[in-house]
Write a structure and sequence with these properties.
heterodimer, A: mainly alpha, 14 helices, 70% helix, globular, B: alpha+beta, Rossmann fold, Dna Ligase, domain 1, 2 domains, 4-stranded parallel β-sheet, 4-stranded antiparallel β-sheet
Chain lengths: 322, 346
């Protein structure tokens, strides 16, 4: 039996860590793109970065002026609840509350990553080489995931980590794609070269550039990129792949939960998975990609809510036999 | 290659012209490299690493990106596919993991998203080449970006002891069923004696004056040139016409009397095989060597991609460095290094 409190902590741990990895990679790619000078490209497009990460700003708050400031605010600043470090802290805090459920190795890795990031900020050596900082963080998360898969039983608890991770991932990928299409509609003036590096940037932000090359060759075409990120069955960052992982994790979880309450979240995940499994690009994206991508993000939200409602924060009556 | 129609009339899809800068600031062509120019993976990797290590430099200068090379190479190769095979299969043909440029072959295959094949992975059936995967998966190949030399590419047509090629490939090629980049025989243009005639060839066929000059070249097959070369072995650079990679060279000012005598004998017994050029004082660039910044000689190899209707020059290139102090030999096979190379946007 898994306590609902424990389930919640594992779910959030998985979600926050996915967010740590995703944000770090998106920031790294944006900083790299800013170093290339293509005709028509803007210098540091931090506004776009804030949009991509759904970071909010106070009305009187300016965008960061340079990479060092950006990294301080979006990666290190513990006071900014959206920063990478804040997400890592939340992931660690959730894991700390369920240390008896996870392996010691998992805790040690997560704690070491957290402590090392604190040190890095103190040392202040990071501004000159942001790529290595990003790499360190992403590798730290990958290591945690590998350790998790290798040392923790793949039982109910492990499935909650999976659900958190892939709900976050499906949502993030759909949002980046949505944003890209929105940008495409407004930026008719950008040069072909600049557009090319933006699409390559999107794939890199989803750690999918090389995987895309292998499937579609180096021809970067928006329709194929969208197809890859949405529908590719093998790409571990595609929405379809994520939906499949969510569904199968929820199915296992469902087997452990009382019949009366289980099933809602699983059904929603199954619907999302099936729509992507059997959907065609043309009918999915059509003339207005925003509709479908927005709907995918809503479905992620509904899965989250259903899981919460039935497995974590449920009315006590549903659990006690009448 | 007589009576062979090369697909789309594109003989050279990838050229890597070696340029050097002289004392007066002029860039001149040192070699044409139309056979299988290599090194472009260094250009791409150098850039990637430099951006990581010195991002602040890129913030200050407007450096044009080179990362689209893979896509440009792919479109170039696609444009020379046989007619009606525009969306055909493209492969990179490598001699295999033992080749010194294997890293580059794998790198380019990955960057283009195409298969990397060895000769043993291909077969020619009814004059059509295919790559064979696990049965029943056999797929027709339309364009081969080949990094295997002519001599080894087809044991039926060329060296019969070659295990690196594909038997019957030349026939498929002659029948127009498969395109190759670069075309078979383009190595003729890399012959250092042909080099001497390139300005005249440009003038004759295009009625244009070359924008970049060649280095003065003495052909030992001409009696008057030969005498001049033999009289000035200690100041000239002598090169065997068919060699590359910095092999078969005599650099006069750095040579010993015995080396000069060896070359004298070789030139006299086979003059057609040798050319000579003045020892160039080509430019130097600061290099970080053993904890200090020191000047080293460099040359520049830009990459030129030539497709059916488009010539693309990637805004960058491979700067090769002679790492030994005072050395003029930049070839990586002779211990040369390389540098990231920037083209600045206005």
């Amino acid at each position: 039996m898994l306590l609902s409190r424990v389930a919640a902590a594992l779910y959030w741990s998985g979600r926050y860590l996915e967010r740590v990895e995703h944000c770090t990679r998106v920031i790294d790619v944006r900083l790299d793109l800013g170093l290339d000078r293509t005709p028509g490209a803007r210098e540091w497009d931090f506004e776009r970065l804030y949009d991509a990460l759904l970071f909010t700003r106070d009305e009187d708050e300016d965008l960061p002026a340079n990479p060092a400031e950006l990294i301080e605010r979006t990666i290190f600043d513990p006071a900014n609840k959206q920063s990478v470090f804040a997400c890592l802290t939340s992931a660690r805090e959730n894991a700390r509350q369920v240390r008896e459920e996870i392996s010691s190795e998992m805790w040690e890795q997560l704690n070491a990553l957290y402590l090392r990031m604190k040190d890095l900020r103190m040392e202040g050596t990071w501004p000159a080489r942001p790529h290595y900082l990003a790499r360190f963080i992403i590798e730290g998360v990958h290591l945690f995931q590998g350790i998790t898969d290798a040392t923790m039983g793949h039982g109910e608890g492990w499935q909650y980590l999976q659900v958190g991770r892939f709900v976050e991932r499906a949502d993030a990928t759909a949002w980046l794609l949505d944003l890209q299409f929105q940008g495409l509609a407004t930026a008719a003036t950008a040069s072909a070269r600049a557009t090319h590096s933006e699409w390559a940037g999107l794939l890199r932000s989803c750690a999918s550039l090389e995987a895309y090359w292998r499937v579609y060759t180096a021809d970067l075409r928006p329709d194929r990129i969208a197809e890859f990120l949405l529908l590719n069955p093998d790409g571990p960052r595609s929405v379809r792949f994520s939906a499949e992982c969510i569904e199968s994790a929820l199915r296992v979880i469902g087997e452990h939960v009382s019949r009366r309450v289980a099933g809602h979240a699983e059904r929603l995940a199954g619907k999302l998975h099936a729509s992507l499994n059997y959907g065609q690009m043309e009918e999915l994206l059509g003339d207005n990609p925003h509709l479908v991508l927005g709907s995918i993000r809503r479905q992620c939200e509904e899965i989250h809510a259903a899981l919460y409602h039935t497995n974590i924060d449920y009315p006590i009556e549903t659990a006690i036999p009448a | 290659m007589r009576d062979v129609h090369v697909q789309r009339d594109v003989y050279v899809s990838v050229a890597g012209t070696d340029l050097v800068r002289l004392e007066d600031g002029r860039f001149v062509v040192l070699e044409d490299n139309l056979r299988v120019p290599s090194g472009v993976s260094y250009m791409l990797t150098n850039r990637e690493i430099t951006k990581r290590v010195f991002p602040e430099l890129f913030e200050r200068y407007k450096v044009a990106p080179v990362a689209h090379y893979g896509q440009t190479l792919l479109s170039t190769l696609r444009s020379i596919a046989p007619p009606a095979r525009d969306n055909g299969t493209i492969v990179v043909l490598t001699p295999g993991v033992g080749n010194s440029a294997y890293f580059e072959h794998a790198f380019l295959a990955r960057q283009m998203g195409v298969a990397l094949v060895e000769g043993r992975d291909l077969l020619v059936q009814r004059q059509t080449s295919s790559t064979c995967g696990l049965p029943p998966d056999c797929k027709r190949v339309d364009v081969i970006y080949r990094r295997v030399d002519d001599d080894f590419i087809d044991p039926l047509a060329f060296r019969s002891d070659s295990f690196l090629g594909v038997a019957g490939l030349l026939n498929a090629y002659r029948a127009g069923n498969v395109s190759m980049a670069n075309a078979i025989g383009t190595g003729v243009a890399d012959d250092k004696a042909v080099y001497a005639y390139v300005p005249a060839i440009i003038k004759y066929y295009l009625a244009e004056d070359p924008i970049l000059q060649n280095v003065d070249t003495f052909l030992c097959s001409r009696a008057i040139d030969r005498q001049h070369v033999l009289d000035n072995l200690d100041t000239l650079v002598v090169k065997a016409v068919g060699e590359s990679g910095g092999y078969g060279m005599l650099i006069g000012p750095h040579s010993t009397a015995r080396e000069r005598e060896t070359f004298r004998a070789r030139i006299q017994s086979d003059p057609r095989n040798y050319i000579a050029q003045p020892t160039l004082a080509f430019s130097r660039s600061p290099c970080f060597v053993d904890d200090a910044v020191e000047p080293r000689h460099v040359d520049l190899r830009p990459y030129i991609l030539c497709g059916r209707d488009q010539v693309s020059i990637i805004p960058g290139g491979l700067t090769r460095v002679a790492l030994k102090r005072g050395s003029l030999v930049v070839n990586s096979s002779q211990g040369g290094g390389s540098k990231d190379t920037w083209v600045l946007e206005d």
